């Protein structure tokens, strides 16, 4: 591994993220908030730390980035971003401890949206914007953003892109990575702007509309209100956010083609059809079940069920209702949805729909072979054969996902956390959802989890966001062997 | 209008090199190949788009964005695939320029056929390599010779021997004898330097100088090269390249000996060549070489298809006292290694082909172009149009991009090795040395 180069690029990415801190800084200026100082200090520290790392490790020669270095750069950058991103939480009136601040910061960047904070309404506006903005940066991925504005990364950029965005099902939309990264961010920023407009028309203040637009498109789930979306008591807002969460969970290459007038791609994508089917079935089950149990009228049930399904499946984690009061069946359906997650190439987390779909197809194929031992079969996705290596990769992913979840849950229970909270909060963190069940349900927060438990969850969030392999590789001895 | 889009059909060595040259510039590159493994190699190394499939298939080309493409380069090792790809590109997608790599001489020399297939131009790697070998035989002290203006102006690459007087001297103190010789670029290992006054010359550097054809001998002695008339040439390998080289040498009345290990091929050579000595045997056989008086040969050219054999035989010939040894290696990753073995000239047909094709990708006023050191630098001949911002300025006044140098001004039949006070006028042609990173600015300047 080329340590100097890895640090150098991490320095650059830190510099770029420091510029995002100017947004809360100006917000604070605008609202004459108490947190102006905190942001000024945080920005200065982050900016100069990035600059220092960059210049200390700058080399005269142009060295090419090996794919091994790519993984290290991405993981390091995310860790460093979260580290510096927690400064505002510690320095401002929120005055969180380091553990709590890092948890909040990581929950932001990984778009998990699990929070330590209560009484959000009392927090300064700058902090609220910063929380939302970290999610927005993490949603499309800060590496992809850096690629879009830095042509110098060149071919090495491909290595970074691959380490932040999983390869399966993601096609190269443009010949050059810089153009592709640009397209993705244009679409992302464009959709965010449209959503912000719609939300403010629907009655949110401009400030709330901005914050919620940022966290919805990122499928993040941070809100400016303790009650989350339920605070607004508006079916319009519920509807708009439901639709946009659903959009954010769709593969962005489909949006890319749709904008070019090619809508047929939606119909051709079997992952998209699967995604819709899963959402539809889950909504129906919960609607029927909540009507049955007498929670809601038919229309109300549909409204709350569809919102909650979109929120959990796309791993956003907004709440309009406390689903812990719903029948247990509904809660189980939601837990299953956490595993499914969004589509590949979306801002959503989880295992991703296409992986589940391919595993289902593979399972069917195994059964088919038992009946027809001599049959020649191929696993197809959108009329293309799926190579064996891809399937192997998915099996490995699935196994690691479960293994890590089990180990993390074990540690959580060892710390004395009850089993429902332990298991669901770990799954929620791995899938970057946010709310879980038990102590960490939609109406509660993560403040009461023991420190060690918070660090376990921090690691789970990062592993989940970078789709396991990128982070886990750094803990495997072969990675460090020359 | 966005960036230029180039479709490369064929992800073999030539396609890979082209993709590598182009992708680091502001050009959209799409590579098509039916071999997944080859595409994988590209995706791991280069920032290009890849399409898996037959290069001649209309649907595949459409997927590769042929609708918006400016150039199609068909460089698979199958003539037929390349021809169909060009035809489809021309007829169905109206791509303005389609370059094809063609091996078969029957196709290659049939202009009507090529024209109706939409191929312009056809490039044969074997012929390009043979031309390069021939040029090196003509200018025996050179490690590299590139022709401009149909060979009237040449850029000569000269390898600095270990006992050269120039070693360690800074450029401003070189004091080369008159008429002036200008050094436009230095190739050192796998790097290229566009020299400034304070750079020094080191052992084993290759220096590049633009020279008028009549002045080559003078240039040779100025940099300490030894002039030697070439009379006898020994060629290892009677394949296509060997055959073309031998034929050209015969036309120039040189004594040629060809060693070929395949009897049938020997018979063909015997039939097709007039007076060359055809030897059947193994080129790395020391006995055979000595028997044929290798130490009396002026040039030994190891240009068979077997690169390991070429390198071994070249080292053997070197140790037996041949002054000038030319070697062909196919795998481009061998080039830097082979360059360090003390062999005077090492060529790669695929690299030469990629370099030749590059000149058709360059737009506007660039008449001719050649690449140095795996594309790290380019030497180009460019036309100065009347209204250009360059006209009427002295070289002092022209703001050239960094790492760029005007090596010669061609005015009518004259070749001027310029100094700062020389003035560029309309209708001049310039020989420019430039590093890869400055090419975009150079293109802009020339427009």
Structure description:
- The complex is a heterodimer of chains A (482) and B (447).
- With 482 residues, chain A is an all-alpha fold.
- Helices cover 65% and strands 1% of the residues of chain A.
- Chain A is built from 23 helices and two strands.
- Chain A has a two-stranded antiparallel sheet.
- In chain A, strand 1 (380-381) and strand 2 (384-385) form a beta hairpin.
- In chain A, helix 4 (67-85) crosses helix 6 (98-109).
- Chain A is globular, with a radius of gyration of 22 Å.
- Chain A starts with a helix and ends with a helix.
- The model of chain A has no long low-confidence stretch (mean pLDDT 89).
- Chain B has 447 residues and is α/β, with parallel strands linked by helices.
- Helices cover 31% and strands 25% of the residues of chain B.
- Chain B has helices at 13-23, 36-45, 58-63, 79-93, 105-108, 111-116, 125-138, 216-222, 240-251, 263-272, 286-291, 307-319, 335-339, 349-361, 439-446; strands at residues 4-9, 27-33, 49-52, 71-74, 97-101, 122-123, 144-148, 153-159, 185-188, 191-193, 206-212, 232-236, 255-260, 277-280, 299-302, 324-328, 345-347, 366-372, 377-383, 404-411, 414-416, 429-435.
- In chain B, helix 7 crosses helix 14 (349-361).
- Chain B is globular and about 60 Å long.
- The model of chain B has no long low-confidence stretch (mean pLDDT 85).
- The A-B interface holds A 67, 154-155, 157-158, 172, 174-177, 179 and B 3, 5, 23-24, 28-30, 43-50, 65.
Number of DSSP strand runs of chain A: 2
The rounded Rg of chain B comes to 22 Å
- Counting DSSP H or I runs of 4 or more residues, the number of helices of chain B is 15
Overall shape of chain A:
globular
Largest interface between protein chains, with number of residues from each side? A-B, 11 and 16 residues
Strand ordering within the main sheet of chain B: 3-2-1-4-5-6
């Amino acid at each position: 591994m080329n340590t100097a180069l890895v640090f150098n690029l991490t320095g650059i990415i830190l510099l770029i993220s420091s510029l995002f801190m100017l947004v809360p800084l100006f917000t604070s200026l605008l609202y004459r908030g108490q947190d102006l100082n905190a942001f000024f200090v945080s920005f200065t520290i982050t900016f100069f730390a990035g600059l220092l790392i960059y210049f200390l490790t700058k080399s005269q020669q142009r060295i090419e980035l090996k794919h091994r270095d790519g993984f290290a750069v991405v993981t390091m950058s995310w860790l460093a971003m979260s580290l510096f991103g927690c400064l505002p939480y510690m320095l401002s009136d929120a005055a969180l401890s380091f553990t709590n601040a890092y948890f909040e910061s990581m929950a932001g960047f990984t778009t998990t949206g699990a929070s330590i904070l209560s009484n959000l309404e009392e927090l300064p506006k700058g902090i609220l914007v910063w929380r939302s903005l970290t999610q927005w940066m993490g949603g499309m991925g800060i590496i992809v953003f850096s690629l879009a504005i830095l042509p110098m990364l060149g071919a090495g950029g491909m290595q970074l892109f691959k380490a932040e965005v999983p390869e399966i099902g993601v096609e190269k939309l443009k010949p050059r990575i810089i153009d592709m990264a640009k397209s993705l961010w244009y679409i992302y920023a464009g959709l965010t702007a449209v959503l912000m407009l719609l939300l403010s028309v629907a009655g949110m203040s401009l400030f709330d509309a901005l914050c919620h637009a940022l966290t919805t498109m990122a499928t993040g789930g941070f809100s400016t209100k303790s009650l989350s979306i339920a605070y607004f008591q508006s079916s319009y807002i519920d509807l708009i956010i439901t639709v946009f969460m659903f959009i954010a969970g769709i593969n962005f290459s489909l949006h890319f083609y749709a904008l070019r007038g090619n809508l047929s791609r939606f119909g051709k994508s079997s992952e998209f059809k699967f995604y819709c089917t899963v959402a539809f079935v889950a909504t129906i089950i919960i609607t029927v079940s909540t009507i049955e149990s007498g929670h809601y009228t038919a229309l109300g049930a549909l409204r709350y069920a569809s919102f909650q399904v979109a929120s959990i499946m796309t791993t956003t984690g907004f709440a309009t209702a406390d689903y812990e009061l719903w029948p247990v069946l509904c809660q189980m359906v939601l837990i299953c949805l956490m595993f499914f997650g969004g589509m590949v190439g979306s801002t959503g987390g989880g295992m991703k729909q296409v992986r589940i779909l391919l595993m289902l197809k593979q399972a069917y194929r195994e059964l088919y072979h038992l009946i027809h031992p001599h049959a020649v079969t191929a696993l197809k996705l959108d009329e293309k054969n799926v190579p064996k290596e891809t399937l192997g990769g998915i099996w490995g992913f699935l196994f690691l996902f479960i293994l890590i979840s089990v180990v993390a849950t074990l540690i959580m229970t060892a710390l004395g956390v009850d089993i429902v909270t332990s298991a669901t909060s770990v799954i929620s963190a791995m899938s970057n959802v946010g709310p879980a069940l038990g102590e960490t349900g939609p109406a509660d927060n993560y403040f009461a989890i023991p420190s060690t438990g918070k660090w376990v969850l921090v690691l789970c969030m990062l592993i989940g966001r970078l789709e396991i392999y990128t982070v886990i590789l750094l803990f495997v001895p072969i990675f460090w062997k020359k | 209008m966005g960036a230029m889009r180039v479709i490369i059909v064929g992800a073999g060595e030539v396609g890979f090199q082209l993709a590598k040259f182009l992708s680091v510039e502001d050009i959209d590159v799409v590579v098509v190949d039916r071999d997944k493994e080859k595409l994988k190699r590209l995706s791991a190394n280069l920032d290009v788009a890849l399409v898996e499939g037959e290069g001649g298939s209309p649907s595949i080309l459409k997927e590769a964005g042929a609708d918006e493409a400016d150039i199609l380069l068909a460089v698979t090792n199958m003539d037929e695939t390349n021809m169909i790809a060009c035809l489809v590109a021309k007829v169905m997608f109206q791509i303005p320029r389609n370059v094809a790599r063609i091996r078969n001489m029957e196709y290659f020399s049939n202009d009507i056929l090529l024209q109706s297939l939409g191929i312009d131009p056809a490039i044969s790697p074997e012929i390009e390599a043979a031309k390069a070998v021939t040029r090196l035989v003509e200018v025996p002290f050179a490690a590299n010779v590139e022709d401009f203006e149909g060979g009237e102006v040449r850029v000569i690459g000269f390898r600095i021997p270990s006992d050269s007087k120039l070693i360690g001297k800074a450029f401003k103190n070189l004091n080369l004898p008159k008429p002036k010789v200008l050094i436009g670029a230095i190739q050192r290992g796998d790097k290229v330097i566009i020299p400034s006054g304070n750079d020094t010359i080191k052992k084993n550097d290759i220096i590049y100088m633009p020279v008028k054809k009549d002045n080559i001998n003078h240039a040779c002695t100025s940099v300490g090269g030894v002039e030697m008339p070439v009379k006898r040439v020994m060629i290892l390998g009677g394949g296509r390249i060997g055959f073309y080289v031998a034929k050209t040498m015969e036309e120039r009345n040189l004594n040629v000996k060809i060693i070929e290990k395949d009897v049938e091929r020997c018979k063909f050579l015997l039939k097709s060549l007039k007076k060359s000595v055809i030897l059947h045997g193994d080129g790395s056989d020391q006995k055979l070489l000595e028997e044929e008086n290798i130490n009396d040969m002026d040039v030994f050219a190891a240009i068979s298809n077997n690169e390991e054999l070429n390198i071994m035989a070249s080292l053997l010939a070197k140790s037996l006292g041949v002054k000038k040894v030319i070697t062909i290696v196919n795998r481009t990753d061998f080039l830097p290694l082979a360059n360090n073995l003390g062999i005077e000239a090492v060529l790669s047909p695929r690299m030469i082909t990629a370099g030749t094709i590059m000149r058709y990708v360059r737009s506007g006023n660039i008449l001719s172009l050649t690449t140095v050191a795996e594309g790290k630098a380019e030497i180009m001949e460019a036309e100065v149009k009347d209204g250009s911002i360059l006209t009427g300025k002295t070289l002092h006044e022209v703001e050239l991009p960094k790492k760029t140098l005007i090596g010669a001004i061609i005015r009518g039949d004259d070749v001027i090795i310029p100094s700062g006070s020389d003035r560029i006028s309309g209708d001049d042609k310039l020989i420019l040395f430039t590093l890869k990173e400055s090419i975009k600015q150079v293109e802009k300047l020339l427009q």
